[in-house]
TrEMBL record:
Entry GO CC: extracellular space; lysosome
Gene, per the UniProt record: LOC112280288
Protein name: Uncharacterized protein
One Pfam family linked to the record: Inhibitor_I29
Keywords from the named record: Disulfide bond, Glycoprotein, Hydrolase, Protease, Signal, Thiol protease, Zymogen
Length: 369
């Protein structure tokens, strides 16, 4: 019966979305925020669709948006309206999280993907060896590398498809911390400018700066180049540039990397052993994500399009819509601290949500720097 109720909610949301999309611009409006949740009630749907223009003005002020012409303003308002409806759909499909207005609410899905994603997933995973299974019988109920000093502040990739570079540097920073006890901030711009490594089995899966890339390719580049510079020596610009790598300023090196088995207990075991892990994920629900534990009813596990950093997990994320405590993964993103949960994403653990367990890699540091 519960399953039928959820299905009915989803159908109602899609029907309402279709009806509202046909209304004049000023008649359509803002979605659920500030504690208003979608549970299928007509009252709540009506509340969620009131005051879009005022909400749009608040959005512009909060995120410092600037539109230079009336036409641009009207176009972005239309996109904003569409994203309000999309957030309603996401709320119904992902009731344990909160979906609402975010910094990306004036971007189309295509614009969002081009500017803020960028993972190039080959049809087959990297030829890097798969790690041997670890014992998992004594895994702690929760674990967080942030509490142990292995994770730096949340960074912001800007409107450049360089997520893969931030995922890579996060993993290398963590590995270097495990080896030396020192947390460094490493250069993503070096990877954007200098790394053109291709997957050995798929010539089209190449690292291409703001045009996307792959973390395992980036590890190979770091090994071959001799290491990464500090962020302070090679600062991030958020756009493609000419390679300025200086081998004399290398601050961290990589000795090897490995793919982790898809079993989520193995992922947890390697997270504890090897430090933060670079992973690929389907970011379908992340454009509208505000907070909470994301447990989408359906999320394509094959369409991995975003590189992020797995830093921990916890056992008790309360999910009021399901009246239960849900274990979840803690993911560090690269869209700045104003997005999500102060720059982090919580997503259900144990179900391979959004393919998060299918492209996981660990890296080891070479401390001979």
């Amino acid at each position: 019966m519960a399953g039928r109720g959820v299905l009915l909610t989803v159908l109602v949301v899609f029907v309402l979305a279709g009806l509202v999309a046909s209304l004049p611009l000023r008649d359509v409006i803002q979605q659920v925020t500030d504690g208003v949740r979608v549970d299928g009630s007509v009252e709540q749907f009506a509340h969620a669709l009131l005051g879009a223009e005022k909400q749009f003005e608040s959005f512009i002020k909060e995120f410092g948006k600037v539109y230079h012409t009336v036409e641009e303003y009207e176009h972005r308002f239309k996109v904003f309206k569409s994203n309000l409806l999309r957030a309603l759909k996401h709320q119904a499909l992902d009731p344990t999280a909160s979906h609402g207005v975010t910094m990306f609410s004036d971007l189309t899905e295509e614009e969002f993907a081009t500017q803020y994603l960028g993972l190039k997933r080959p049809s087959a995973l990297s030829t890097a060896p798969t790690a041997e299974p670890l014992p998992t019988g004594d895994l702690p109920p929760s674990f967080d590398w942030r509490e142990k000093g292995a994770v730096g502040p949340v960074k912001n990739q800007g409107s450049c498809g360089s997520c893969w570079a931030f995922s890579t540097t996060g993993a290398v920073e963590g590995a270097h911390f495990l080896a030396t006890g020192k947390l460094l901030s490493l250069s993503e711009q070096q990877l954007v400018d200098c790394d053109h490594q291709c997957d050995p089995e798929e010539a089209q899966a190449c690292d291409a700066g703001c045009g996307g890339g792959l973390m395992t390719n980036a590890y190979k580049y770091v090994e071959e180049a001799g290491g990464l510079e500090l962020e302070s020596d090679y600062p991030y610009k958020g756009r493609d540039g000419k390679c300025q790598f200086n081998p004399n300023k290398v601050a961290a090196k990589v000795s090897n990397f490995t793919n982790i088995p898809i079993d989520e207990d193995q992922v947890a075991a390697y997270l504890i052993k090897s430090g933060p892990l670079a992973i690929g994920i389907n970011a379908e629900f992340m454009q509208t994500y505000v907070a909470g534990v994301s447990c989408p009813i359906f999320c394509n596990k094959r369409n991995l399009d975003h590189g992020v950093l797995l830093v921990g997990y916890a056992e008790h994320g309360f999910a009021p819509a399901r009246l239960a405590y849900k274990p979840y993964w803690i993911i560090k993103n690269s869209w700045g601290p104003m997005w999500g949960d102060k720059g982090y994403y919580k997503i259900c653990r144990g179900h391979g949500e959004c393919g998060l367990n299918t492209m996981v890699s660990a890296v080891a540091a070479n401390v001979d720097v």
